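Open question from group meeting: does this chain pack into something compact, or does most of it stay loose? Before anyone orders reagents, we agreed to write out a predicted structure and look at it together. Recording both the input and the output here so the notebook holds the full record.
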Amino acid sequence: MRTPTVLISGASIAGPALAYWLNARGWRTTVVERFDELREDGQNIDVRGAGREVARRMGIEDAIRAASTGETGTEFVDAAGAPLARFAAGTSDSGGATAELEILRGQLSRIIVDRTREDTEYIFGDRILTLDENDDDNGGEGEDGVTVTFAGGATRTFDVVVIAEGLRSRTRSLVFPDIDAVRELDFYIAYLTIPRTGDDSDLWRWHSAGRGRSITLRPDNLGTIRAALSFLSDVRGLDELDRDGVVTILRRTFADVGWAAPRVLAALDDAPLYFDAVGQARMPSWSSGRVGLVGDAAYCSSPISGMSTSLALTGAYVLAGELAAHPPRTAFARYEALMRPYVDQAQKLPPGTPRIANPRGRTGLATMNTVLRIAGSPAAARLGGLASRLFTPPADAINLPTYARTTPPNRPGLV
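Structure tokens returned:
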């Protein structure tokens, strides 16, 4: 029996996780990543619900906990930095604005990659240039599979190709050229890493400044602070500007904001900076023939949802299980049938999001602060419920199948 092969494009979280589970089922896995090396950067992410259960089944839950950012909860503050409301970190698999398991994206990626290095071929500094599927089911001739031409010049054939890239995946457009996959949320976020000072804490501190703007500071486990400047705008393409253009926009947009804004703006000269237009991936299908999508390329729910990492881990687990048990087209269809309701629930953001947490006017800002004070009051804490409804995403909204770790039997389409 020939060992089935898969090419996975993307070495962040979903890609290596898919490689892990397919390795466990006897596949030969290759991961291609356009960056020259594994990216160690990235902001704080949550591992929740079904995603946490997948991490548990992978045996990496303790490693994630050991690399925790140490974030102890969420605190909303006014322009002077005075607390408005505070919420403790979650104590379950799913609860809280701060999840029980918080980790930097790059560190979670490293944990998974390190557990796949022995069995997975990693190709850094390259990308997919063309995809050409040939399958006897479609009347073609020659070897079944997907012939891939890489930007570096190599040409190889794989049984299956899975695109595990980001929201604005370029490779996805090779397979679905006529689909506008991104639903824009008219919201931009600038992420920075800045020095930690004595005034910082282990809380995720959040200040809504009005006019659709907010600023947050979050701890990490490296002795620095992860800052974010967020603002509403219906102007498209700001994320395509060069660094100088982005810095100019940020300084003008946040020039009159108090609390930590002057400190963050001052750091723009030399701090690591990532600027992103926030959106969701809305795809009518997650596969075409032997090529499929997983993670953000298929169903990014946006950082606002708190669910993208859990969706990536869960989707990789389900897709691997189905590919190991069925021919590619059947496997992709079953994977989508299992995951689509979970994804739909995760992508249903609270009404008014992201505007509700970034009010434009004084009335909206006053209303939000009042709701936060009530939700964070001792009385509300005793009654329970309100804070949980505000901050707990639908991380458990799927019954995870159990898949055996076995070398796959000889199957149609893979012989």
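Observations to bring back to the group:
Confidence is low (pLDDT under 50) at residues 137-142, 407-415.
The radius of gyration is 22 Å.
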